[in-house]
Amino acid sequence: MTGLQSRIAGAPISWGVCEVPGWGHQLAPARVLAEMRDLGLAATEFGPDGFLPAAPDRAAGLLAGHGLAAVGGFVPAVLHDRAHDPLPNLEQVLPFFTTAGAGSLVLAAATGRDGYNTRPRLDQAQWATLLANLGRLRDAAAAAGIVATIHPHVGTVVQTPSELRRVLDGSDVPVCLDTGHLLVGGADPVQIAASVPDRIAHVHLKDAAADIAADVRSGRITYAEGVRSGLYRPLGQGDAGIAAIVTSLEKAGYRGWYVLEQDTALDAEPPAGEGPAADVAASLEFLARVTA
Predict the structure, then answer these.
(1) Does domain 4-290 have CATH number 3.40.190.10?
(2) What is the C-alpha separation between 173 and 36, in angstroms, rounded?
(3) pLDDT confidence of 116, banded at 50, 70, 90?
(4) What's the rounded Cα separation, in Å, for the pair 244 and 248?
(5) Which has more confidence, 111 or 147?
(6) CB atoms < 10 A from the CB of 230, how many?
(7) CA dist., res. 108 & res. 110, Å (int)
(8) Of 20, 111, 116, 119, which is most buried with the most CB atoms under 10 A?
(9) What is the DSSP string of 11-34?
(10) Measured on CA atoms in the order 31, 28, 223, 7, is the torsion positive or negative?
(11) What does the alpha-carbon distance between residue 228 and residue 19 come to, in Å, rounded to a whole number?
(12) Burial level of 124, CB count in 10 A (0-12/13-18/19+)?
């Protein structure tokens, strides 16, 4: 699998760094980036607002100082509300991407509410607005040399298989294949990777426990409760079919990033090398076996 090891990146959420209020203990950037470097990761996504310095040149310098390239980042945007224009907010963050040399903008169709525990269902007019705005943001990113993708995500308005299908059929915007969120949303990530590889431009690798995913999907527990209950596992220890997904994508010619993104919530500062770092190390060992 040509060059796959050099296309494995990290994400601060794997270290518990999250934009959701009250998510959990937040580790300092210096520790997170140093552990990424020490684990041999090639690059990282940016993380939420406030994780890296607000000035694009300082953020790029901090990453470079830790030997990490910038992949890009996750940008929630309200796309379905006709009274809200998401383009100005996107135009504010694009310099962050261009200064750091990051080429991947991962859009989530946000609800406009805090967190991921509740979400609205859209009517036809709202779907039309979402798809039109998605195309506008894709075009704005492309003008800056950045590839925008849509990220099916629990607690957003693009979560379920039918909602993903509406995006696939109603636009030509590529997809961020998030293997864990797809499983929680009720989709089969192995089937999606095999059936629409030409629409996949970015990958978030998560492994997930199917039983806890079903509890989140049914509403028996919230997404945050699922994460704290062990929804996400090191790669190869869950039910998402990671080996089959990676093999399928590589055979189909995918040459983008694989971002290790196992949502984690911490109660306290773990000892050095333990907690998130140990889980990411286990995921890297699994990928090395898959790609040997």
Answers:
(1) no
(2) 30
(3) confident
(4) 6
(5) 147
(6) 13
(7) 6
(8) 116
(9) -GGGGT--SSTT------HHHHHH
(10) negative
(11) 16
(12) exposed
* Every domain of the chain and the residues it spans: 4-290
- Please classify residue 272 by burial: count the beta carbons closer than 10 Å to its beta carbon, then call 0-12 exposed, 13-18 middle and 19+ buried: exposed
Specify whether the CB–CB gap between 39 and 277 falls below 8 A: yes
Q: What is the pLDDT of residues 223-277, one digit of tens each?
A: 999 999 999 999 999 999 999 999 999 999 999 999 999 999 999 999 988 999 9
Mean pLDDT, range 75-96, rounded to an integer: 95
Cβ–Cβ under 8 Å, residues 15 and 263: no
Q: Which DSSP state fits 181?
A: H
Q: To the nearest whole number, what is the mean pLDDT of the chain?
A: 94
| Residue 2: per-residue pLDDT | 54
d(CA 115, CA 120): 13
Distance of CA 289 to the CA centre of its chain: 23
In 3D space, the residue among 39, 11, 42 whose CA is nearest the CA of residue 27 turns out to be 11
**Residues 6 or more apart whose Cβ sits within 8 Å of residue 149:** 104, 105, 106, 107, 173, 174, 175, 176, 201, 202
- Exposure of 222 by Cβ count < 10 A (0-12 exposed, 13-18 middle, 19+ buried)? middle
> Residue 44's beta-bridge partner residues?
10, 70
Alpha helices in the chain (DSSP H): 29-39, 56-65, 87-100, 124-143, 161-170, 179-185, 189-195, 210-218, 223-228, 242-251, 276-290
